[in-house]
Specification:
This protein has helices at about 5-15, 50-60, 90-95, 130-135, 175-180, 210-220, 240-250; strands at about 30-35, 40-45, 70-75, 85, 105, 115-120, 145, 165-170, 190-195, 230-235, 255. The chain is α/β, with parallel strands linked by helices and about 260 residues long. It has one domain (about 5-255): Leucine-rich repeat, LRR (right-handed beta-alpha superhelix), CATH 3.80.10. Strand 9, helix 6 (about 210-220) and strand 10 form a beta-alpha-beta unit. Helix 1 (about 5-15) runs antiparallel to helix 2. The protein is globular.
């Protein structure tokens, strides 16, 4: 069975796991497009169970791994105990590499989602350095979207082509802003999006956000100099603090996006 045949068999195996009476948003599916031997892959479904596990096993194995150009992972707003965690361990631990991978997109939270979406595995709900391990296997990555901040190790990986970095803090900023300010491996970074820690139902939520000094360090850093567009989601900064940051980089396109949600009891 050829590459397309194996992928089509996986697509059909996932489709038969669905209940046809369910709403379309809950229908799990695996899509792929083969463009002259380069694969664009998308999984839509639950972050647990056989459909997801089979999909990750497939993309982490040859000959699929070396042919992937883009991977998108997402699904309906379903999780457990308020969390939807995407386990990327199979991608991180595989012996295969992703030499053609240019775009990796793991769905982030939407404003009205009930579950907090993160990269994690099991009850630990930790990113655990998996993004760094995946990055090591994908030296030509251009675009990365993630619902959890990567660990410090991510910034030890040289990613000379990475131009678009879109990160939500998830449950732990992992000092992302400070680590980025000290990095030297992202020379082509042009667009940065940072979604601040946003568990606003917690009394001490502001203490978990990136400190203002870390943001100042970022704006003053050589690592941030190539960035031309910065989208800042749900900052804990005041208007005066945002103005101060902007004054440090007058040439920067700085877009602030805010949302909040609360249940009425």
């Amino acid at each position: 069975m050829g590459l397309d045949g194996a992928l089509d068999a996986l697509r059909k195996a996932i489709l038969v796991r669905n209940d046809p009476e369910r709403s379309p948003q809950y229908i799990q599916r695996f899509h792929f497009v083969d463009v002259r031997g380069e694969l664009h892959i998308e999984f839509h479904g639950l972050s647990w169970g056989d459909a997801y596990s089979q999909s990750m096993a497939a993309v982490a194995s040859e000959p699929i791994a070396s042919a992937m150009v883009s991977v998108r992972i997402g699904g309906p707003d379903q999780g457990a105990n308020g969390t939807r965690d995407w386990d990327l361990t199979q991608l991180a631990d595989t012996a295969a590499a992703f030499p053609k991978l240019r775009s990796l997109c793991i769905a982030q939270n939407r404003p009205a989602d009930h579950n907090r979406t993160i990269v994690g595995s099991g009850s630990l709900q930790k990113e655990g350095g998996v993004l760094a391990e995946i990055a090591r296997k994908a030296p030509h990555l251009v675009e990365l979207t993630t619902p959890s901040a990567p660990s410090k190790e991510f910034f030890t990986v040289g990613l000379p082509s990475l131009a678009y970095l879109n990160v939500d803090a998830g449950y732990d900023t992992q000092d992302f802003v400070l680590n980025l300010s000290r990095s030297s491996g992202l020379p082509q970074l042009r667009s940065l999006e940072w979604g601040e820690y946003c568990e606003t139902y917690m009394e001490s939520w502001r203490e978990q956000c990136a400190p203002l000094d870390h943001l100042r360090a970022l704006f003053a850093s050589e690592a941030f100099r190539p960035v031309r567009r910065f989208v800042f989601r749900n900052p804990a900064c005041s208007s005066a603090e945002l103005a101060e940051l902007k004054s440090m980089r007058p040439d920067l396109q700085l877009l602030v996006v805010r949302w909040s949600a609360q249940y009425v009891r």
